[in-house]
Amino acid sequence: MIIIGANSFIGKYLYEYFSQKEKVIGTYFSKPEENLIQFDITNPEISSLGDLTNERYCIICSAIGRIDDCKKEEEKSRKINVEGTKKLIEQLFSKNIIPIFFSSSYVFSGDNKNPDEKDERNPRTVYGKQKKEIEDFLINSKKKFLILRLSKVYGLKKGDNSLLTGMIEQISRNDKNKYAENQIMTPVYVEDIVRVLDLAIEKNLTGIYNVSGEEQFSWYDLAKIISDEFKLKNKIEACSINDFNFLEKPRPLNTGLNPDKIITEIGINFLTIEEAINKLKEIYK
Fold first, then answer.
1. For the chain, how long is the longest CA-to-CA vector?
2. Confidence (pTM)
3. Residues in Cβ contact with 230 at an 8 Å cutoff, skipping those fewer than 6 apart
4. Is the domain 154-185+215-257+271-284 a CATH 3.90.25.10 member?
C-alpha cells in the first residue's frame, strides 16, 4: 500500500494502522518524518517510491485542505489539489494501482438535506470545486477508483486541535466564544475512517461513498454540549457562519452527508458524539 501524505492528520492514522498489517510506503511533502519518503505532489513521479509491482492501492491524503487557503493561494492550491493529483492518478492507472481519494461534502451546495452519493454536486468554494474536478476526473477515467467523501473529521487526542478537542481548549481559554448555529455537519471520528477504508479494501469496494457520522449538529450545538459536559464557565454565543471573516461567502449551510450506502455495504457503526465525549472525559480528567 502507498499513502501519499502519510504525515497529514488522516494520513498518520492510516499509516499507523496499515503498517501493522502490511508493508506501507508513506510519503511527506515538506516536513520530513522518519520512515517516510519525500514526494513532491506538484510534480509527482511514483517511480521514485521504488518497486511498485505488487502495490494494489494508493491512498491520496496530500492536499491543501483549509478552505480559505485554497481561495487565498488559488494558483498554489490548484497545483497541488488538482494538477499534481491528476498527474499522480494517471501514473497510478498506468501501473494498475487503484487510487483512493478523500473528497468532501463541500462538493455540494449545502442548500438541501444531507446529500447522498447520487445528488447533484454544485460547489460554492474553490476548495469544493477542486474536489469536484478530481471526482470528475476519476469518474470519467472509466477505471477502478474509490472516493470517500467526508464531512467534518475529528480526533480524540489532546492537543490535536480537531473539532471537539479544539472546542474544549478554545472555550477554556477565551471568555467569550462564538459558534455558528446555522451551519450543520455530520462529524466523523478519524479512526472510523480508517475502519471504513480497511473494510472497503477487504470487500473490494470501488466507486463513491459518503463517510460521515449519522448524527447532525451545528457548531453551536457541539459547543454547548462541550461546555455543559466539561462544566466550562466561559460564555458561548450563537451566531451565523457568515458572521466570520471568511474570504468566500456565503458558506454552505449544510455540510453534512448521508452515509447510508457505506453503512449498508460494510455494516459499520460510527462513533456517536456521546461516546466521543465519554472518551474525552477520560483523557481530560
1. 57
2. 0.95
3. 168, 171, 280, 281, 284
4. yes
